[in-house]
């Protein structure tokens, strides 16, 4: 009997950062770095977190794995990368949750992932 795979949390960094009115638009890289640092120490109940960065935010955190947080630099747009990562995790047998407030993205994820709003994550950081 195989062991259940741990749930995976995929984070739409742009959407989460954008939910805070803290001047993130002046320093996207810095905002991404702060979010990454918070995810490293927060107890959000997930052993695996995928943080998807796009645009100027990519300069704030190198791509790769730090502890339980995998940072992914989207080659094109973040939404496509989020869908790709979430679908791949679901196909490997993981329960997948995605943090975003983007309704169009949520609709694209509905078949294989649950969606949580940015407030859910921000309340745990």
What distinguishing features does this structure have?
single chain, 125 residues, alpha/beta, 5 helices, globular
Would you kindly provide a brief summary of this structure?
With 125 residues, the protein is an alpha/beta fold.
Question: What can you tell me about this protein's structure?
Answer:
The protein has 125 residues and is of the alpha/beta class. The chain has five helices and six strands. A six-stranded mixed β-sheet has the order 3-4-2-1-5-6, with helices on both faces. Strand 3 (64-66) and strand 4 (69-73) form a beta hairpin. The radius of gyration is 14 Å and the shape is globular. The termini are far apart. The model has no long low-confidence stretch (mean pLDDT 94).
CATH architecture, by name, is 3-Layer(aba) Sandwich
What is the strand tally?
Answer: 6
CATH superfamily: 5'-nuclease
Task: Sketch the major β-sheet.
Answer: 6 strands, mixed
Q: Please indicate the percent range of residues in DSSP E strands (runs of 2 or more).
A: 15-25%
- Low-confidence parts lasting 5 or more residues at pLDDT below 50? none
Structure class: alpha/beta
Count of runs of 4 or more consecutive helical residues: 5
Outline: globular
Helix coverage percent: 25-40%
How many structural domains does the protein architecture include?
Answer: 1
Question: Which whole number gives the mean pLDDT?
Answer: 94
Q: What is the rounded distance between the termini?
A: 36 Å
Order of helices and strands: EHHEEEHEHEH
Strand order of the largest sheet: 3-4-2-1-5-6
What's the gyration radius in Å? 14 Å
> What is the CATH class name?
Alpha Beta
CATH fold-level name: Rossmann fold
């Amino acid at each position: 009997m195989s062991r259940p795979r741990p749930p995976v949390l995929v984070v739409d960094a742009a959407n989460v950062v954008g939910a805070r009115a803290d001047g993130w638009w002046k320093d996207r890289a810095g905002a991404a770095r702060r979010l990454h640092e918070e995810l490293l120490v927060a107890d959000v109940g997930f052993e695996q977190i995928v943080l998807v960065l796009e645009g100027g935010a990519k300069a704030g955190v190198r791509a790769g794995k730090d502890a339980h947080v995998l940072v992914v630099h989207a080659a094109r747009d973040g939404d496509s990368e989020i869908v790709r990562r979430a679908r791949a995790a679901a196909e490997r047998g993981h329960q997948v949750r995605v943090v975003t407030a983007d309704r169009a993205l949520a609709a694209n994820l509905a078949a294989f992932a649950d969606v949580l709003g940015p407030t859910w994550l921000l309340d745990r950081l």
